[in-house]
Amino acid sequence: MVDPDPRVAGSGIERLRQAGIEVVVGVEEAACQRLNEGFVCRILHQRPLGLLKFAMTLDGKIATATGQSQWITGPSARAEVHRLRATCDAVVVGGNTVRCDNPQLTSHGHGHNPTRVVMSRQLNLPWPASLWQTEVAATVVFTSLDAPAAPAAALTKAGVEVIRLTQLTPQAITHQLYVRGYAVVLWECGGILAAAALKDNIIDKVWAFVAPKLVGGQAAPTPLGDLGINQMGEAIPLERLTYRSIEEDLLIEGYVKRA
Length: 259
Ligand SMILES: NC(=O)c1ccc[n+]([C@@H]2O[C@H](COP(=O)([O-])OP(=O)(O)OC[C@H]3O[C@@H](n4cnc5c(N)ncnc54)[C@H](OP(=O)(O)O)[C@@H]3O)[C@@H](O)[C@H]2O)c1
Fold this sequence. Notes:
By secondary structure, the chain is α/β, with parallel strands linked by helices. The chain has 8 helices and 9 strands. It has helices spanning 11-18, 29-35, 37-45, 75-86, 95-101, 149-157, 170-179, 191-199; strands at residues 49-57, 90-94, 115-119, 139-144, 161-165, 184-187, 205-211, 238-246, 249-256. A 9-stranded mixed β-sheet has the order 5-4-3-2-6-1-7-9-8, with helices on both faces. The longest helix has 12 residues, at 75-86. The protein is globular, with a radius of gyration of 20 Å. It starts with 10 loop residues before the first helix and ends with a strand. NADP nicotinamide-adenine-dinucleotide phosphate binds at residues 54-55, 62-63, 67, 69, 72, 93-97, 100-101, 119-122, 124, 168-169, 188-193, 196, 221. Residues 54-55, 62-63, 67, 69, 72, 93-97, 100-101, 119-122, 124, 168-169, 188-193, 196, 221 line the site of NADP nicotinamide-adenine-dinucleotide phosphate.
């Protein structure tokens, strides 16, 4: 494929051709684009590719009404998530997911560990927590300007990078991760933050695991909080879909269709 970076686009190919070397472009074009989609997104949109992953029961719940979510899917689907993390530069959750799940967000030996990112407004985060074990993997906490100093200092002492932002939004975090040179950011948050990320237009791809389980409960959370959609015609469509069964679970992958 031709490098989409305007600084080089096509010039390498041209030089090779001028040297008498035959260059064929467009072979398996779609597969090439997919292989490089994080890089392409950085070049075209000046931000990393955003991937939203969630696991839900067949009745569309990502946790029980008490907020307990471990485990919805089986071991093979979870291992697939570990492999997915190894292909990402960062994995993002919100403070509530840290409080409810105490996640590790590592690749569990399947490859490199992404930087673990937490968004929390007031830093009312549990102590201890797996994410503060920075010898396992790096952790960055993004917080607001007025978050209290004591938890920020304790996190910093544990080796966690604490960054205060004027605007604590998924878009602002995405920009921060772009500046770090990241190409693929995995959002493994709950529905409130996931909806905010979608509304900020920084999600390009969805990985939805569906487990053949029913938990019910009107108060049990769903993959997405309010998106302000009132008509089915306003629903966000996904395209280029793939369906994979992983033991008893189903993985649906798709790209957010842009207008
Ligand atoms: N099954 C799954 O795939 C899955 C995955 C993740 C989570 N969960 C479940 O989801 C539930 C938690 O859901 P949640 O939606 O509260 O998740 P979350 O991932 O904790 O996101 C919400 C939190 O993000 C922080 N935040 C910071 N800036 C924000 C902004 N601009 N907009 C929105 N949030 C911002 C806040 O943390 P502070 O309150 O600290 O300020 C807020 O409470 C738990 O029950 C957990 O078990 C399930």
